[in-house]
Amino acid sequence: LWVDGYVSCGRSSSFASLVTDGGDIICGENGSIDATLWYTPGHFTLLGESGSIRDVHTLPSEAVFEFAAVVTDFEGFLAAANDPTVTAITVDGPVAVSGQLSVSKPVLVTENGSLGLPEGYSAEGEDVCELQFTAGLINNGSVTCSLWSDDCVLNRGVIEPAWGVWAGEQGGSDARVLNLGSMRLSYYSVLWCDTLNLGEISVSGGSDSPGLHNDEGTLFNCGSVTVGQGAELRIGGTLFNAGSLVADGRFLNLGLVVSCGADYMEVNGELENLGLIDMYDGSGVIAGAGIDSSGGAVISRNTAFSSGTEGVWLTDFAAIDQGTEGHR
Q: Which of 282, 292, 190 minimizes the C-alpha distance to 232?
């Protein structure tokens, strides 16, 4: 993709993302990309000082693993993690994680690989089996041990952690998450970073504290997010929804939600809005057993809303619709 003019990605360009997935992007001296670019090294070039792009997130490159140590069990993984001569680790078999381990080098899990749990392990009353990544993770297989990351997580496979996911830290970090596969969360999980979902994220009940909390950064949903009964999705940062969001549990908004796709609350769902839900760019319906927006505001053009619900503002956007097509 050669850009020497202006590229605006999406109807709401302030939340747009552009992802390199094997292709190259070259931004010329007169080029301007009004989007957040998610790219792997070697696939993006900015020519001259005049070209511009709004923001960038670097993704881990599989080229880093050309000379990686290949492991097929936890003993080999542990040895590679502690070996100063090893620069990267490729997991190509079933690795049963025991205890807590910080990994300071990039890790690639192949389609044949997994980072799992010891046989017979139960999350209830057992020690946490957790990997802490500080140099990036590419998952093409499966991860079922608990996962903490202060760098990039690129998921093309399945992440189903026993004790949840913790990405980033309060106040900012280098963490970011790109999900092209499936993330199945049944335990308390926190995202303190930008997350782009092009796959599926499901949050289910079944533990003492099930839920996904996006406390900082932006959750860009261009795939699907489902919240089951007994689970909670809490937005403390920003949610940009251009995909499907189905909440049969609790949806708590403390920040900003911008809907450009389908934004549904199932019959058993409960919405508590203490922030702003802006539905200018979409006509998704919020419906459910309970809508409490008395401490916030929902702005929508959709007349399906109950006019008697406090905090819901039915708005005629005609005055600002004119001439905005293609420039929102």
A: 190
pLDDT digits (tens, 9 = 90+) for 19-60: 887 788 888 888 888 888 888 887 888 887 666 787 888 888
- The pTM (predicted TM-score) of the whole model is 0.88
Sign of CA dihedral 50, 56, 62, 66: positive
Q: What is the dihedral of CA 141, 147, 151, 153, to 10 degrees?
A: 30
Write the single-letter amino acid at 296.
G
Tell me the average pLDDT across 104-116: 96
* Count of H-run helices and E-run strands, the chain: 2, 39
Write out 196-254 in H/E/C secondary structure: EECCEEEECCCCCCCEEEECCCEEEECCEEEECCCCEEEECCEEEECCEEEECCEEEEC
- Residue 234 in tokens: 């809490």
CB 249 within 8 A of CB 230: yes
